[in-house]
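Record type: monomer structure entry
Structure origin: computed from sequence
Chain ID: A
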Amino acid sequence: MFEKAQLHDLPDIVAIYNQTIPSRMVTADTETVTVESRREWFLSHHDARPIYVYKEQGRVVGWVSFKSFYGRPAYDQTVEVAIYLCETVRGKGLGKQSVQFVEHEAQRLGITTLLAFIFSHNTVSLKLFKSAGFSHWGELPNVAKMDGQLYSLTILGKSLVLTS
C-alpha cells in the first residue's frame, strides 16, 4: 500500500536508491548517498510535490516522488516523476502499480503533465512507462558520463488533459 513518506522512512528510501547506483541504469549518481545528504531533498517535498512509500508487511520496498519541472510558474502543472523499487520486488508488477498510482495522484494534485527522464539503455523502465501510455518526447544524447562511458537520456511524457 502507498502512503505519504515520513522522515523516519528516509533511511529506507536512501537504501533503495543506493541499490540502483552500481547498475548505471537508473541514476546518474555514481557513489552511494547518505541519509543526511538526502535530508534536504526529502524536506523539499510537500503536499503538492509529495514522496510516497510502498510498504509490504510494514517494510518499505519502493517509493515514488514528484518533482517540479524547471522551477518557473508556467510549468506548475508539470512534474518529473521518479519510481524506485527494492531489488527483491522488481519484476513482480509493482512498477506497473507504481505508474498507475503516480497518474492517479497527479490528477488529484492538479498535475496535467508527467515527465520521466530515463537512461536510454534502461529498456525495462522505458517499456514500463510506454506501456502506461507515456510517449517519447525527446532524447539528450551522451549527456551523462559514468565510468568513462557516455549515456543518453530519454524524455518520456504523458499529458493527463483530455483534448478534443
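Annotation 1: Residues 2-116 form a domain with the Aminopeptidase fold (CATH 3.40.630.30).
Annotation 2: The chain has a mean pLDDT of 96.
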